[in-house]
Specification:
This protein is an alpha/beta fold. Helix content is about 45%, strand content about 20%. The protein has a five-stranded parallel sheet, sandwiched between helices.
C-alpha cells in the first residue's frame, strides 16, 4: 500500500500530471489549490507527506509545522526554478525542496526517502507507546 500524499498547488498546468505520476507509483494523492483546505485535510487525514508549491507554500508550511499533529510530517516545497536556491528561513520550516520539472526520477526518489524516514519514525513512536 502506498503513502497518502497531499499535493497543494495553485497552478493547474502541472498538478494533474504530477498527481498521476505519484498514483502510478502506488500512492494515494489528494490535491488542492487552497491553503485552508490543505489545513483541514491534514487535520482529518494526516497525510504521510505534504508537497507545497513554493509560490504560496512558505506561510502554509509555517502553519502546518506549528500544529503538533504535523510536526513530524515531511513537508517539501516544489520550486519552479533550479536557479533560485531557497535559504532555510525562506522555506517556512520545510524539510526539503524539489525542483520542477518533476517528471524525472530524482524527485520521486527524494519523496520516497522522506517517506521511508517517516515510516521509521512512526514505527518507533508506536513501539514507545506499546511499551
Amino acid at each position: 500500500m502506498g503513502a497518502m500524499i497531499l499535493l497543494v498547488d495553485q497552478h493547474q498546468n502541472g498538478r494533474p500530471f504530477f498527481a498521476e505520476l505519484l498514483r502510478q507509483h502506488g500512492h494515494d494523492v489528494i490535491t488542492t489549490t487552497d491553503a485552508g483546505r490543505a489545513l483541514q485535510t491534514c487535520a482529518v487525514l494526516q497525510p504521510d507527506i505534504i508537497l507545497l508549491d513554493d509560490s504560496h507554500g512558505h506561510e502554509l508550511c509555517r502553519r502546518l509545522k506549528a500544529d503538533p499533529r504535523n510536526r513530524l510530517t515531511p513537508v517539501l516545497l516544489v520550486s519552479r526554478s533550479s536557479e533560485r536556491a531557497l535559504a532555510p528561513e525562506q522555506t517556512g520550516g520545510a524539510d526539503g525542496v524539489l525542483t520542477k520539472p518533476l517528471s524525472t526520477g530524482a524527485p520521486l526518489h527524494r519523496i520516497q526517502s522522506f517517506l521511508d524516514v517517516k515510516a521509521y519514525i512512526d514505527k518507533q513512536a508506536e513501539s514507545v507507546l506499546l511499551s
